[in-house]
Amino acid sequence: MTRYIFVTGGVVSSLGKGIAAASLAALLESRGLKVSLIKCDPYVNVDPGTMSPFQHGEVYVTEDGAETDLDLGHYERFVRTKTTQNNNFTTGRVYGKVIARERRGDYLGATVQVIPHITDEIKHCILQGNDKYDVVLVEIGGTVGDIESLPFLEAIRQLRMELGFSNTLFIHLTLVPYIPTAGEIKTKPTQHSVKELRSIGIQPDILICRSQQALKDSDRKKIALFTNVEERAVIASQDMSSIYEIPMLLHAQGLDDIVLEKLGLSARSADLSDWQQVVSRLQNPKAEVQIAMVGKYVNFADAYKSLSEALIHAGVQTETRVKIVYIDSERIENEGVQLLEGMDAILVPGGFGSRGIEGKIKTAEYARVHQIPYLGICLGLQIAVIEYARHFANMPKANSTEFDINTPSPVIALVTEWMTDQGTKEIRGESSHLGGTMRLGAQKSLLIAGSLAAKVYGKEVITERHRHRYEVNNYLLPALEEKGLKVSGRSVDGLVEVIEIPNHPWFLACQFHPEFTSSPRDGHPLFTHFVQAALKQCAMTHRTHEKIQKTQTGVS
């Protein structure tokens, strides 16, 4: 029977429940168990697709095209199981289903209530399709004590009674703050958090205590005494230099052994050699590069979480410390491209809306003119096409209809805006209704033999995940290609997926989001090659600076 581990959080939000759950899943996977993870979000939005990146962070996209919480990105980076739309659900989605059933009369006139109807739907979402896994970890979003989380907590309380104590486990993640003026850590917030959890009928089996430093034995003993948790099951999770150290930190305290024992599972010894290699390379880089990420949401790091991690993964693969310099594209507009000076490479990520767009276009121009390695992702491809059209294809007012609906040269537009009826039949097929809607999920791209993209991937057919609505205008594209822009990848139905600029050291932009399939153990070829290009740029720049310095000092 599948075992379920429920992970809750207390005291404050953003403690790292997702990282803790993913790290435990990595440990169980390393012991030969088949694992999966689920994130339950208590907000009323159906999914995070329409939520502001400043509030919620990035929207992670699964292979089947679901727009989900960013914690699913952590899950896929730590374990090899691929998530789907069933691995993330919200209060909005749960209530939507229940209300739809009520409107159809499925409840036969019964009064529809939180208990049992809402909690039954939550339980159904947790259990469906998971009988093929040994262990499923279920993360409950929010903080114990929040009114929004109560239906989820009640549902998992019921599941323990229905599935049995030997098939379920409660892990509570809490904060043990350090008070500098007192010179000691305080366990009281943890005590109160567990008290709150117990008041709704849940007794945690294991505590993971987040802290700035390791817990003393006396602190663990005190926490155990006041929370009714075994002392050995009070696990310390202090701040580490990298999140990829967490699996080994938890393993060193026997967390995976305790979990297996309480769930009555037997498994082989943990093989953490992959994680040890990742951490070793992170801690002992042989080189360093500085990469500018020019975006619209740089004031909130979680908005580009998968991208930042993908660059770190590329650093692991190349034994390089990747220093990411976040630059707001509006600053480029107001202060100029001198903000990009000294960078070894430039990355322009995705985004929506017109704010900061001209700054991104100037960034692409700077990378092209100064021969700086450039990687454009989604919107980063679109602004590169706009920049090229303005300077090479006699389209000085080229733009996307997203930013200027009246542009005379809509090189980027909704498919329905640039495709005639005949064009639609030729490119997409008569029965297609995809025009103007968001392209989501994993889709194939066909790469041109001999292109940089084909060299990077080592093959000519790839599958990557998408999340965008606007496309390169195929009817204006020939004018750009005549002036040297190279389309090195297209979708199966003929849409632009990858562009390159010949006679440039490394200039590549893609319409898809490769960051969603990068992981610390495997990396991703596109980011690995990008960092390698940055290393070459760094070496060349240093040689150039050295030559200039010798000339200025009169040394030949």
Features:
21% strand; 23 strands; 556 residues; alpha/beta; 7-stranded parallel beta sheet; 20 helices; 9-stranded mixed beta sheet; single chain
Descriptive report:
- The protein is of the alpha/beta class and 556 residues long.
- 39% of the residues lie in helices and 21% in strands.
- It is built from 20 helices and 23 strands.
- Strands 13-12-14-15-23-22-21-18-19 form a 9-stranded mixed beta sheet, with helices on both faces. Strands 5-2-6-1-7-10-11 form a 7-stranded parallel beta sheet, with helices on both faces.
- A hairpin with a 5-residue loop joins strand 3 (60-61) and strand 4.
- Helix 4 crosses helix 5 (114-127).
- The longest helix is centred in the last third of the chain and has 28 residues, at 525-552.
- It is globular.
- The relative contact order is 0.10.
- Residues 421-436 and 547-556 have low confidence and may be disordered.
Write a concise synopsis of the structure shown.
With about 550 residues, this protein is α/β, with parallel strands linked by helices. The protein has a nine-stranded mixed sheet, sandwiched between helices. Strands 5-2-6-1-7-10-11 form a seven-stranded parallel sheet, sandwiched between helices. A three-stranded mixed sheet has the order 16-17-20.
Q: Biggest sheet: strands side by side, in what order?
A: 13-12-14-15-23-22-21-18-19
Helical run tally: 20
Q: Tell me about the largest β-sheet.
A: 9 strands, mixed
Structural class: alpha/beta
What gross morphology would you assign? globular
Kindly report the average pLDDT value.
91
Radius of gyration: 26 Å
Report how far the terminal alpha carbons are from each other.
Answer: 76 Å
Which regions contain 5 or more consecutive residues with pLDDT less than 50?
421-436, 547-556
- Bin the helical content: 25-40%
